[in-house]
């Protein structure tokens, strides 16, 4: 009897695999793996068979053995990271899958490299429904329609129903004068998103709900969960009527994110975008607008002085960051990035939101917009995106103003956010003297 040489046996197994018969391929592998000198690629084929047959428990070890043999499959590694729920770049592995599964930006014009039926079945078997949702999203459809149709059929065959994405509300917030209105107008220009004028309703609702969530209501039999459900019913109804006709709705009220913990609980599918701007530009802008209380006519406390405005800015950011519900639901965006690289910034935002790219967001000033006179930013937002407001503070804030900002909590926050370098002890900062720029 002639013995098949191990390399030929592996080639035969590979042929079975390529012909769509992973079980037949897998049968030959244990004997080859047990050899003193297993043929090159045997563990890799083993990993592919295990993955196709849905044996995800063995997969990490088979991949490791394949790596030990020097055979690295970057596409397979990306899939493994998806099965683990943390899509991660692996060399040049499947950039399409990585970008769509992670909500990241897709910089290359590429097709998906993985089999849609196998991928969806395995992801559902691992409980990675969130990633399946992303793979079937309108964004994925716009990028690879045929692949997504196959993936959809696989999900349907497994009786998987995509959740109702209507309640994937988007809340935009941040310290006032950070570019919140500009971001909402840019999103509003997207064909699938409604982002109308500031309502203040959802911020206030979360606030009131929290005020009610105390002893008197509890003693009367109104539990925290009942308050959540009631707030959700009210809020969902209002948001869906407000954004009727649009698949996604974004509401911008700067204070929204100060109530993110409550809003995130009331709306378990909502996402939050925090727009952050250099505190010195924000302080300068707050001094300029000098908002007052309409009843008393007195300046709002944080518009009274540079020091108060700076403290307000730092406290806003600190309080919002402390409430982050994690990177899947909370995104920080820098105003400076938005205005200096609008396409890059909006691609990041839309990828993260799972929405297809729409170039209309770059021409928000040409899209139909509701810009009420009572909103301070309306006339600015009617303009195309510009970078002129980036450096105005450098001309208007004097050395004393800057010292007041840098020496208080805002100074630390500027360093934390990378807007300013830390000043080593004992050194006088040129910036604080207004000479650094
Ligand atoms: P300045 O007051 O420094 O000019 P918000 O809407 O959060 O209150 O933010 C207001 C800031 O956004 C203003 O800053 C304004 O200039 C800036 N902004 C509004 N529209 C803009 C646009 N089209 N391009 C760049 N910045 C814009």
What is this structure's SSE topology?
Blueprint lengths: L5 H13 L3 H12 L8 H11 L6 H10 L5 H10 L11 H8 L13 H10 L3 H7 L2 H6 L1 H13 L12 E4 L6 H9 L4 E2 L6 H12 L2 H5 L4 H19 L5 E5 L7 H7 L4 E6 L2 H11 L16 H17 L7 E5 H6 L1 H12 L24 H4 L10 H5 L2 H9 L1 H8 L21
Parallel strand pairs: 1-3, 1-4, 2-3, 4-5
Helix pairs in contact: 1-2, 2-3, 3-4, 5-6, 6-8, 7-10, 12-14, 12-15, 16-17, 17-23
The structure holds adenosine-3'-5'-diphosphate (A3P).
Report, as a whole number of angstroms, the end-to-end distance.
85 Å
Kindly report the CATH topology of the domain at 171-385. Answer: Rossmann fold
The SS-based structural class is mainly alpha
Widest sheet, order of strands: 2-3-1-4-5
What small molecules does the structure contain? adenosine-3'-5'-diphosphate
CATH superfamily of the domain at 171-385: P-loop containing nucleotide triphosphate hydrolases
Low-confidence stretches: 433-437
Broad shape: elongated
Helix content: 40-55%
Mean pLDDT: 94
Determine the strand fraction and express it as a percent band.
Answer: 5-15%
Tell me what the CATH architecture of the domain at 171-385 is: 3-Layer(aba) Sandwich
SSE ordering: HHHHHHHHHHEHEHHHEHEHHEHHHHHH
Global Rg: 27 Å
- Highest-level CATH class of the domain at 171-385: Alpha Beta
Number of helices: 23
**Using DSSP, what is the number of strands?**
5
The profile of the biggest β sheet is: 5 strands, parallel
In quaternary terms, these chains amount to single chain
